[in-house]
Amino acid sequence: MVEKEICPPPHGIDGHVRLVLRQADFQTATRIAQAVNAELPGTACVADAGNVDLRVPPTFARSPNHFIALVESLTVTP
């Protein structure tokens, strides 16, 4: 018998992810959205000074963890 652990997507993943900035700042939120959109156009938008909303692209629908890992790997200068 072969068992495979199936990991559920992170809590709250329903096609959208919200990044919450430790310190609210429109400039940093905008830079984050720009960095994400440079890699995956049309994915990120600034909700307000402290939050950036991300739409999980269809190519990552079955693996949102990979999407989050990609976003985490992006370099943003605050």
**Strands ordered across the widest β-sheet:** 1-3-2
Rg, nearest Å = 14 Å
Low-confidence stretches: none
Number of strands: 3
Average pLDDT number: 86
The level of helicity is 25-40%
Distance between the termini: 51 Å
Tell me about the biggest sheet? 3 strands, antiparallel
Q: Determine the structural class based on helices, strands and strand pairing.
A: alpha+beta
What does this structure look like?
By secondary structure, the protein is an alpha+beta fold. The protein is 31% helix and 19% strand. The protein has two helices and three strands, in the order βαββα. It has helices spanning 26-39, 64-73, and strands at residues 16-20, 44-48, 51-55. Strands 1-3-2 form a three-stranded antiparallel β-sheet, covered by helices on one side. A hairpin with a 2-residue loop joins strand 2 (44-48) and strand 3. The radius of gyration is 14 Å and the shape is globular. It starts with 15 loop residues before the first strand and ends in a 5-residue tail after the last helix.
